[in-house]
Amino acid sequence: MGFIRFLFREGSPIIFSIFIVLFAIESITLKFMPFLAIPDGYIGMFVVSVVSLGYLSIQMSLSAFAKVGYDGPLLDLFLSLIPLITLIIIAVLGFVGKIPLSQFQMFGFGIAAIVVAMDIVFNTMILFKMNRLANDFVQMS
Predict the structure, then answer these.
(1) pLDDT tens, position by position, 88-104
(2) Range of the domain at 130
């Protein structure tokens, strides 16, 4: 049970970052792990969209059911920065030319960037707002 809890709470940004990296290094993935390769085209874009929306739904459900009054939001903010840092590193490596990115991969990274931005902005804003309201409620009573 603890492993499943880890996968959903702290592990989901790490797993999403690993998915982003595997998506970026498609040439290596095709050679060594062809079962993990995401095909170009509409099926691949569907897979990328489903994984990105799955990550976002996990993060939103965690923020909706988060306990208030402790330092959990700060940890969630730092963990949500892991996929953002991964996307920035891949974007810089793609811009420099170290990782050749196809147009399909660029669109997939655009979807992932939108999802990560929504996670960081909305979910952390909700968590910090809930904690602030909980602290204000404790002070008023």
Answers:
(1) 999 998 889 888 888 88
(2) 2-140
